[in-house]
Design a protein that fits this description.
2 copies of one chain form a homodimer.
Chain A lengths: L1 H10 L6 H11 L8 H13 L3 E7 L5 E7 L1 H12 L11 H12 L3 H25 L5 H34 L5
Helix pairs in contact in A: 1-2, 2-3, 5-6, 6-7
Chain A binds a DNA duplex (28 and 28 nucleotides) through helix 1, helix 2, helix 3 and strand 2.
DNA sequence: ACGGGCATGTAACTGGTTACATGATTCA
DNA sequence: TGAATCATGTAACCAGTTACATGCCCGT
């Protein structure tokens, strides 16, 4: 729902064209998240269908039209509800890394290799991100925060992989096998 | 792709019915992730369409049929590729918490309240998870690991929210306003 | 004249998700 | 007999995503 609600939030500042929304969305996230223009329009269609936005047609100089989207009352309600709501309270997401590692542990002899490969990949991502953090000091706030979020998430995932190693080692020991 | 690849991974152990796959999937994740049975069948249909699985019909005692799914060569290839691949290497995900907070910072006067609300929600989730960690000591490995992952992720998100507060405070100061 | 940015859309597809319907088997 | 579990499916919808096509406008 991030795209949908994101567009709603951008419209709270005032009416805008689809194309403008794309650019604002990317600016607001420091260019870290790209948004295909087409997706803006499909999402706006759905928002219109649901009564969250309304459209006013500006006649352009030529024959073309510009569609100016603005929030409706229900749209504003949905937005407020979103900002007020806690994220992810209901049911933990099926994260891909977790699914992969858990299934590897349960069903593959080379589980440790799978874990090691993921750790290596995350570490290299982390290096790249840290480099970017050091370089772009005076970066846009949004961009810096997105990077920070990525770094923290990766660190968490690395700790989790360590935990997976430790617990599976315990498991092997508990079951008495030396190998 | 977690469901699709998850089913593929479970089939690597040998043929199974759709219903069995649902149960195995839930067992393998310690019951933390539920899977609607219907989704197993729709996903299996798509896997069959893509040539990743093949189906053998077991005639049951009655008139009913049981469909036994098994991996094909392409299916095994896709699975191996998945286990070998690094997760999330391409383009950072548009995480809901991040979108929400960034847009709040950029477009709302009550950004700090939004952040505070999310922090409170995460903290209460964390408490609940920690309680569960202490209680279910001898829990199934998978379940414990899922819980651990949730805890680590939440801790990371909390640190990120702190970072957001700090940086926005810096920002206000840099712009010279005391409020 | 032409390229690049602004602007709008559509068609098609993906995977995830739910609600619903059906029937067999098992066991109390 | 009747509930629980095993088992299979379908119809419908959702949001996300991409590729593609169209055309205006402006500055070089």
């Amino acid at each position: 729902m991030s795209v949908r609600l994101g567009l709603l939030a951008l419209l709270a500042d005032g009416p805008a064209y689809g194309y403008q929304l794309k650019k604002r969305f990317e600016q607001n996230t420091g260019g870290a998240w790209k948004l295909n223009v087409g997706q803006v329009y499909t999402t706006l269609d759905r928002l219109e269908r649901d009564g969250c936005v309304q459209v006013a047609l500006d006649q352009r100089s030529g024959t073309g039209e510009q569609r100016s989207y603005s929030l409706t009352e229900p749209g504003r309600d949905e937005l407020e509800a979103w900002f007020g709501a806690r994220v992810g309270s209901t049911a933990p997401p099926r994260d891909e890394l977790q699914v992969k590692v858990l299934l590897a542990i349960a069903h593959r002899a080379d589980a440790q290799a799978v874990i090691a490969a993921q750790r290596a990949a995350l570490l290299s991502d982390l290096q790249g991100l840290r480099r970017r953090q050091r370089q772009g000091e005076g970066e846009a706030l949004a961009r810096a925060l997105v990077t920070a979020a990525l770094v923290l998430r990766i660190e968490a995932d690395l700790r989790w992989l360590d935990e997976c190693d430790r617990r599976t080692a315990d498991d092997r020991q508990a079951k008495g096998g030396t190998r």
